[in-house]
């Protein structure tokens, strides 16, 4: 018996249990929240937006100068009347440049289309404004000039907001009846594994099965 006890191997002592951490200690150093990634605008959209922004701001400044000049004329400074006429004649040319900038931002920068319509509307309005001014038709000249200034200022203010970088909506692909039937047919073929079974056609017997039956 003593020899059997001496021959038995001695087992190693058991390992101590792992230390248990309280839940508060694990939350002492939480991970920082993920930072939102900055969305960088494409290069084409940036420079077209700046081009349209500068043109609309210049046009708005010229439009605002018109009531200021005519106000000085009414105060007795009669020399500014020629400046008022010259500045008014440059407004349609500047509006045409704004049309080009809006088209460039729409085509190249993939911007919205409505600024093109707004800038196109400025050209006939300013042409009618010049004609009413030279004909001394103040009943048309004053309210039409007010509308031009308001529209020009609104366009300039919009150009300095982040909305100028909004891209135009893309059209969804048009799905015709033929393409729908093709999609349904291919889906049915994939689900059954064989086009003949999906359409209800009989599968012809193989030569081996015919020979065995004979």
**Rg (CA only):** 40 Å
- Main beta sheet: none
Task: List the helices and strands in order.
Answer: HHHHHHHHH
The residue fraction in helices comes out at: 55-70%
Structural category: mainly alpha
Counted by DSSP, the helix tally is 9
| CA distance, first residue to last residue | 82 Å
Low-confidence region ranges:
194-203
Shape: elongated
Name the beta content range: under 5%
Round the mean pLDDT to the nearest integer and report it. Answer: 78
Give descriptors for this structure.
mainly alpha; 66% helix
Write the layout of secondary structure elements.
Layout: H1 2-7, H2 23-26, H3 43-74, H4 80-107, H5 114-134, H6 138-159, H7 177-192, H8 195-199, H9 207-213
Helix pairs in contact: 3-4, 3-6, 4-5, 5-6
Description:
With 214 residues, the protein is an all-alpha fold. Helices cover 66% and strands 0% of the residues. It has 9 helices and no strands. The longest helix is centred in the N-terminal third of the chain and has 32 residues. The N and C termini lie far apart (82 Å). About 5% of the residues have low confidence.
Short description:
The protein has helices at 2-7, 23-26, 43-74, 80-107, 114-134, 138-159, 177-192, 195-199, 207-213. It is an all-alpha fold and 214 residues long. Helix 3 runs antiparallel to helix 4.
